[in-house]
Specification:
CATH class of the largest domain: Mainly Alpha
CATH superfamily of the largest domain: DNA Cyclobutane Dipyrimidine Photolyase, subunit A, domain 3
Radius of gyration: 24 Å
Number of helices: 21
Bound molecules: flavin-adenine dinucleotide, ligand DLZ, iron/sulfur cluster
Helix content: 40-55%
Strand order of the largest sheet: 3-2-1-4-5
Distance between the termini: 64 Å
Shape: globular
CATH topology of the largest domain: DNA Cyclobutane Dipyrimidine Photolyase, subunit A, domain 3
Order of helices and strands: EEHHEHEHEHHEEHHHHHHHHHHHHHHH
CATH architecture of the largest domain: Orthogonal Bundle
Number of domains: 3
Length: 512
């Protein structure tokens, strides 16, 4: 009996479900680089190079372990360019009795997979993805009967279930969440350790050349390339975070500094999401550092909450709410994405820096994604479909299961508050407090109106004015509407006219 076992580009784990029970003498492992996956959105060049190199290294590791791997490279002459086409070719070549796959990370791929059994007339076993800490079924049970969901309660249950940072049945230190200690602005002369940098080997070099030739028109810088592409390297990157950055992760979690793209974050999302790292090992390493007195509780809890709480919660919402979630647009936002998101010039220094770093690294840290880029997309009323496409393209860690709820739910409030209790709208004052971007900006963050004023200031109020019907009855933003009610007519007129001038300028592709 021969089984064809398909491993996708974001399933690079040696204990992935599709490999369980593999008969090395008879079974074939199929891995394919396909044009369709690299171009259904035009992924960042660095993201494609990262994934193809990690796939090739993973295939070589499997071969070393004695598996028979059929690997299709992108430029193989007979490559059909799609999962379906490649499976069809493998069926002809190996005549398998069964196909085994692991549950994919995107709804569109699952819809295709579900049809393979009838299309190929071979049993297809789609196995649960064993790399997550909460199954979609368990999440749905947790969510059932709750009117609105809150990550915090889900996270507490996960801490209890996995006995992480627990002191008996109480949270370690007495609190579940130490976020109030995690909002320090950056101070002058903060020394940020460099991020992990891998050496380029022959496999990665070949992939970089391939991506340069075949995907030259995609957004983003291909080189310098420094991502880990094997599990060993990814484990080094994780250890480097635990020993060099975790200490300050909490304190400076929300801080942004010009020229410091990495700050004290972990830079492991790309490795976690493609399977090179496992969530529980990251959590346990952080917990061990805390127990040995090498990391404070606010940092350890904050880091663990991101992985055990947010990451699992986001995935639960995705699978529970798809396919409708992708169409949500509660605020009826319709504007196109301004050209500066693709690198055209802008005078807004915060956006310029975050987009420049995104282009260079296929990475921006959470607060840049949320409070600069996302905040702008929200208050400028950009259509969720364009914002989702952008985030899915530009970040090396982006797959729809994690990108879509973060964008539509967390930043755009497109789901009407299902995921987040209020829109994360902020004026320039927040960006000025948490970063040094405003120092180098053409606009004045203290000016509220007029051509010199920081656009975030008037767009913020214009956002609340535009969306009064949908938002004014939300108790968590009542304060904003009470402030608006006290503004005189001249102030309201100035806000609206500044916003109109700004929108007109971006529509005309003027530099704003
Ligand atoms: P750290 O800040 O060091 O956090 C540690 C880990 O926690 C991350 O590696 C990640 O696995 C997890 N994590 C933290 N926050 C979240 C979150 N909100 N959702 C899911 N996991 C989280 N993350 C992605 O992995 N892929 C995406 O496509 C993605 N898109 C995002 C879009 C927007 C608009 C926002 C606001 C956030 C998005 N995030 C996404 C979440 C978060 O920004 C990234 O996980 C994080 O910046 C990755 O960098 P890091 O590894 O240094 O994370
Ligand atoms: C993102 C991506 C890219 C760029 N290329 C491939 C590929 O050639 N082969 C592959 O198996 N996977 C690729 N991926 C990851 C898939 O898009 C991902 O597995 C699906 O989106 C499901 O999560
Ligand atoms: Fe951004 Fe406004 Fe500060 Fe300029 S002044 S960097 S636009 S927040």
């Amino acid at each position: 009996m021969t089984t064809l076992r398909l491993i996708l580009g974001d399933q690079l784990s040696h204990d992935i479900a599709a490999l369980k029970g593999c008969d090395k003498d008879n079974d074939i492992i199929l891995m394919v680089e396909v044009w369709d996956e690299a171009t259904y959105v035009h992924h960042h060049k660095k993201k494609i190079a990262f994934l193809f190199s990690a796939m090739r290294h993973f295939a070589a590791e499997l071969q070393d372990k004695g598996y028979s791997v059929h690997y299709t490279k992108l430029d193989d002459e007979k490559n059909t360019g799609s999962f379906r086409g490649e499976i069809e070719r493998a069926i002809k070549a190996y005549k398998p009795d069964e196909i085994i796959v692991t549950f994919p990370g995107e709804y569109r791929v699952l819809q295709d997979m579900i049809k393979w059994e009838s299309a190929f007339e071979i049993p297809v076993d789609i196995r649960e993805d064993n790399r997550f800490l909460c199954t979609p079924e368990k999440f749905e049970q947790w969510a059932q009967g709750r009117k609105s969901l809150r990550m915090e309660f889900f996270y507490r249950d996960m801490r209890r279930d996995y006995n992480i940072l627990m002191d008996g049945d109480k949270p370690e230190g007495g609190e579940w969440n130490y976020d109030s200690e995690n909002r320090k602005p950056p101070k002058e002369g903060l020394l940020v350790p460099p991020t992990y940098t891998a050496q380029i080997d022959d496999i990665t070099r070949e992939v970089i050349d391939l991506v340069a030739t075949r995907f030259g028109n995609h957004f983003g810088d291909l080189e310098p390339f420094y991502f880990a592409v094997t599990r060993d390297q990814a484990l080094h990157a994780l250890d480097k975070f635990i020993t060099e950055r975790l200490q300050k992760f909490g304190d400076y979690q929300d801080a942004m500094v010009e020229g410091e793209p990495w700050m004290f974050h972990a830079h492991i999302s790309f490795y976690l999401n493609c399977g090179l790292l496992k969530p529980l090992e990251c959590i346990q390493k952080a917990q061990d550092a805390y127990k040995k007195g090498k990391a404070p509780l606010n940092a350890t809890e904050g880091f663990i909450r991101q992985i055990m709480g947010w990451r699992e919660y986001i995935r639960g919402i995705y699978w529970m709410k798809m396919p409708d979630y992708a169409q949500e647009n509660f605020l009826e936002a319709k504007r196109k994405l301004p050209n500066f998101f693709w690198g055209a010039p802008t005078h807004m220094n915060c956006l310029k820096q975050c987009i420049k770093e995104t282009k260079e690294n296929a990475y921006a840290h959470h607060i840049q994604r949320l409070m600069v880029l996302g905040n702008f997309a929200l208050i400028a009323g950009i259509d969720p479909k364009y914002v989702n496409e952008w985030y899915l393209i530009v970040y090396a860690d982006a797959y729809e299961w994690v990108e879509l709820p973060n964008v539509s739910g967390m930043i755009l409030y497109a789901d009407g508050g299902y995921l987040a209790s209020k829109p994360y709208a902020a004026s320039g004052a927040y960006i000025n407090k948490m970063s040094d971007y405003c120092k180098g900006c053409k606009y004045s963050v203290t000016k509220k109106n007029g051509p010199q004023a920081c656009p975030f200031n008037y767009l913020y109020w214009d956002f609340f004015l535009r969306n009064e019907d949908q938002l004014s009855n939300n108790p968590r933003i009542g304060m904003g509407y009470r402030t608006l009610a006290k503004m005189d007519d001249d102030k309201i007129t100035a806000i609206k006219s500044d916003a109109q001038r700004f929108f007109k300028a971006i529509e005309n592709n003027e530099i704003v």
